[in-house]
Amino acid sequence: MTRFDDRFVRSLPADPETDNVVRQVRGAAYSKVQPTPVSKPTMLAWVPEVAALLGLPEAPTDEWTTVLAGNALLPGMAPYAACYGGHQFGNWAGQLGDGRAITLGEVIAPDDSRWDLQLKGPGPTPYSRRADGRAVLRSSLRELVCSEAMFHLGVPTTRALALVATGDQVERDLLYDGNARFEPGAITTRVAPSFIRFGTFELPASRGDKELLQKLVDFTVTTFFPSLGAPSPETYVAFFSEVVRRTAVLMMEWQRVGFVHGVMNTDNLSILGLTIDYGPYGWLEGFDPGWTPNTTDLPGKRYAFGNQPQVAQWNLMCLANALFPLVGEAKPLEDALEGYADIAAAEQLSMMRKKLGLAGDDVKDRELMRDLFRALMSTETDMTLFYRLLARVPAASVSAPDDALVAPLAEAFYAPEQVKGDVLEGFAEWLRRYLQRAGPDDGSRAKVMNASNPLYVPRNYLAQTVIQAVEQGEPSMLAEWLTVLKRPYVEQPGMERWAKKRPEWARHQPGSSMLSCSS
Ligand code: AMP
Ligand code: MG
User: Which of 164, 176, 215, 293 has its CA 20 to 30 A from that of 516?
Assistant: First the structure.
């Protein structure tokens, strides 16, 4: 019998209105709302490690399939949709809230840890605005796979327990070009200590509701940051500093693995420093700081790979503004925010040293890193494969001619015929400097590198292939992929197809290269 609690519900004010109609909700942290039942729930994926974490059965039961489809509640569940706002693409968007998510409750696990259990796509809530509160299979599958992949990569993230097909169709316009079609609907069950976002605090602050703001901050600090001490203006600053630190670390983790979130609005940034809200995200194939997977983001490329650290800092500034009324002075918050750049720079350097297998520190490492990025951009180079292949380049090849020196990296190049002349020389020159800095081979370099550079990441075209298979009633491919992604740093014989660089057919295909928010 699973135990449920809900500190969020117990500690914070509820919306007094209980009708499920779209509205502005003031003075409340959430609205009570029930999931809307679906026609024919089918469990498509169940993540046994997350089930174990929560003390649930190793395999899905009919009862859990029904509950995670939103067709039944278990005793102790008190479902609600949270109220929050956010800055979208740099502009204040006002109230947003859980428009397609309902938290069923807080599971008290056998080890007494606590986890919010949340359905994504369970039907309308008071925050659904003009949309339907549903999610399509393709985006639900992408969320489940990527959050689990991130966890196994060692990147802070929300988790996923299950993927349930609803048996209902959902209408979506994938590219917002007037070509709407019906697609199978699905619900992902997400699991995290909390889904509180930056935007949770921005909304009451924007409305001048200091009372609610204080309740939300005090709840967050005492529940999730107890070591910072009792709520006080100093504690709020310490809390903000800790969010700054965690967010900087998270941004460098995304850079390490090549993850592009795609919609880094302030309502999509977790107060716990977790990766949250997987939508039109993408994984870098060719290393390109200017790449964004989100078609909605194409005009300004605000959320491109290389911009993520700066955008996070801008989002933290929004959070600082929201906390300001409780702190009363700007200076301590500004100082904490200023620390972001130093934390991120230090994290980046130590992260890159691990990716390159460099021990100790050398004043020239930053330059080596910058020049590497330049070489990687001189021709389309698969970031993931590049680092794995680099680990195999022997120290002794430092004196080899250019083409022999660069040859072991060939598989990483999308257009190997372009790797000649200046491009070839650029790589060779960089490799020589790198091998000299790395020193003689003793096997430790490759070991350090392969522990930081994954071989298997959930590439966009692979997601597309798996989605098609599942839509055609063939879920075994999804199971295999999830298994491979559990050990992303270990070469798995027979699983080569999950590590291959993007084939040409996928270069411009919607879903494989570009995505929209239409999920
Ligand atoms: P996101 O793109 O996940 O950041 O969503 C932005 C806002 O739109 C959030 O308030 C979502 O809950 C809401 N939203 C997105 N898709 C839907 C949908 N299908 N139905 C209702 N609300 C949605
Ligand atoms: Mg969101």
Answer: 164
